[in-house]
Amino acid sequence: MSRRSTPHNTRRLAVLSTHTSPLARAGTTKAGGMNVYVADLSRQLAHIGWEVDIFTRRDRADAPDIEQLAHGARLFHIDAGPRVSLPPIEIAAHVAQFTEQVDQIAQDEPAYDLVHSHYWVSGLSGIELARRWQTPHTVMFHTLGAVKEVFQQPEPSFRIAGERRVVACADALIAATPHERAFLIGQYGADASRVHVVPCGIDLDSFHPADADASRRRINAALPELGVMDGPGILFVGRLEQAKGAELLVAALPMIASRPEAQLWIVGGDERDEPERQRLRELARETGVEPRVRFASAASRALLPDLYRAADVCAVPSAYESFGLVAVEAMASATPSVATRVGGLASTIAHGKTGLLVGDRSPDAFAHAINQLLGDAALRTRMGEAAAADVAVYAWNNVAHSILDVYERLLSGREGSPSREPCCPDAIESLLVAAS
Fold first, then answer.
1. Nearest to residue 283, comparing CAs of 249, 257, 327?
2. What is the pTM of this model?
């Protein structure tokens, strides 16, 4: 089958985001920082001059075959399993079909120079496609099963087995923080020379300091259910699941004595999460703070900068975050964060300078830290200014070029060398047998 031609000096990248579309709204079920990362990185690489094709599983019947993400970046919806949203562990059973469909589409396209997989399910397909196409394979996990188990979040053994297979076979692994790199090497046996630390990026044209009062007025008009004019705001942004810790903040609210009129804004989820909202409302009722706990569904990316600026404090009580995008976006907006001292949060927040880190993931500990910030306007201002200055390293232009350095290192090492069989030619088949 003939391939479509492309300029000989244009690099082409296949991005695999099997279990979630980069266009899904962050903060809804199984959509978060990874979705934002894949979309923004793809746009940046396309802007630099690469041709980027992203492949995701079709999870709704009306999803188009192809969507234009940006000039030079396309999103393909691939039929693999039912056209409904599925958890990643169930999507694993459709990895072989997904892989075949992507390969079939690729036959009509110019050859790809490199495959970049996101998350372990994508990595399984990436191993096989890299073998067929004789291209280097880069992987970013975003979260790791073995890390979640450390924080008392049990994961299926099949997931961890899949991650270990991907780690063993990938030509390069991208870790968002030194902590993640150490975990990949120490717990997964990754070859240290293949693991590269490149932080996640943020859009500093959108997330930056600005007039907080103007932001509150805009948020009050767009999300009146939050009542942002009713008192100081403690902001939670994220999925409504136990690991993200919104209930810790509800339980902490009665103990925040420095500003007893403070409001807790819980922004995340969609109509599927109404049972969890009801559970949080009941907890607020039991603790006597129900009128001060306000809810809104996951906000659009366009609203988020104003939402961060409208808040006095951004709270991130997660059990684990590989990077902590919410905290960094808040910092870029000059709003200090109070966050659990875990994973990437311990790297991105300078305790006492750009925010506060909490070692004990409990309502008492979060109430104490939030009290410090709400009770001291000068401290909030000082930390917010320091935070906004600190995040320049996460500008997408810097991050994209660091990713390109990894790509080019792989490509320069591969050019002129004989083709080779990868270490795991049967990755998909053997793991699916184990899963069944």
1. 249
2. 0.84
